[in-house]
Amino acid sequence: MSAARMLTGDRPTGRLHLGHYVGSIANRVQLHQRYESFFIIADLHMLTTKNTREDIEQVAGNAREMVTDILAAGVDPDRATFYLQSAIPEVGDLNTLLQNLITVPRLERVPSLKEMARDAGKEEMPYGLLGYPVLQAADILCVKGQVVPVGRDNAAHVEVTREIARRFNHLYGEVFPVPELIMSETPALVGTDGQGKMSKSKGNAIGLADDPVTVRRKVMGMYTDPNRVRADVPGTVGGNPVFAYHDVFNPDRAKVEELKARYRAGRVGDVEVKEELATALNRFLDPIRERRARFEADRGRVDELIVEGTERTRAEVHRTLVEVRRAMGLTSAYTQVRRRAERYRKAVATPA
Ligand code: ATP
Ligand code: MG
Prior knowledge:
- The structure is a single chain.
- By secondary structure, the protein is mostly helical.
- It has two domains: 5-190 and 299-336, Rossmann fold, CATH 3.40.50; 212-292, Orthogonal Bundle (Tyrosyl-Transfer RNA Synthetase).
- The protein is built from 16 helices and five strands.
- The strands form two sheets. Strands 1-2-3 form a three-stranded parallel sheet.
- Helix 5 (89-98) packs parallel to helix 15 (299-328).
- It binds adenosine-5'-triphosphate (ATP) and magnesium ion.
- Adenosine-5'-triphosphate (ATP) binds at residues 10-11, 13, 19-20, 22-24, 151, 153-154, 188-189, 197-201.
């Protein structure tokens, strides 16, 4: 039996950072070993909040950077299919058909959409953004995805996919697997400013592609315990982003515990704690940088991977859509009209 299919991906809005790594990439690096993996570059989803000409002009560049980051993080290009969503118009066709299987009030209850609208500075909900989870259902179902790894903010979206798949199968016959969620319980990684989650647009992110000097500079500028004016003042470890990063990225547990103890006792300066963190982060990022350098030296290969993946996926989606239209009776509707038209043509061509 072939491996179950996994669908995962991101909007091509920029390079990936440590927050993405913790929130999803690390998990995918593991999962793609086990599943047949599709990685969507979700530019149609990007359009739900970013749709200026300038935003769209960034897609080609961001797609390549994002795929390079994912490969650098450890995804094996031989085990993953990367594809550009907008290059497969059949995804939009399926989206149109699935829209009728869910109600507006149901979508209005998806909490993350309101947050996304607010973050994007929209006073009112764009129609496309309300349909974000339906488009996601089209992505998952068009390749008959069976497993979908999700972070907390995305679980409610995939619930919509499950409902739509069940509803479709009930109305028209079994076409879609009802996909399973693989929940990641990892809490969001805080930004270097300690003011909320790491986000590229908030300028509080450390990129997977940042060089060692940049990483060190960002770490030295990190927010710590604001009450600690001198190294001999006892500090707070909880909620301190420097220690949050040590917990996630420094494999030397004994060292981290020792630093925490000395910090609480007022026996270590912020500079030393940050120096240790910069070293740990750079060690963590070194193998990612090495792989990135290899892919950067062969950039055409990354583009080629995206094109091959898009073509492979498009063929897959086409097959699904034929099956969907047939199950719904749409194929037969047009066949009937065509047959009648043929009969009519014959009748007018051969007068009685
Ligand atoms: P923007 O600033 O444009 O919102 P971002 O850096 O916050 O960008 P998104 O595109 O919003 O990135 O995030 C994509 C996905 O990555 C999220 O749905 C989430 O699963 C994950 N993610 C983003 N930031 C973090 C973070 N700090 N910690 C954990 N996961 C994150
Ligand atoms: Mg965000």
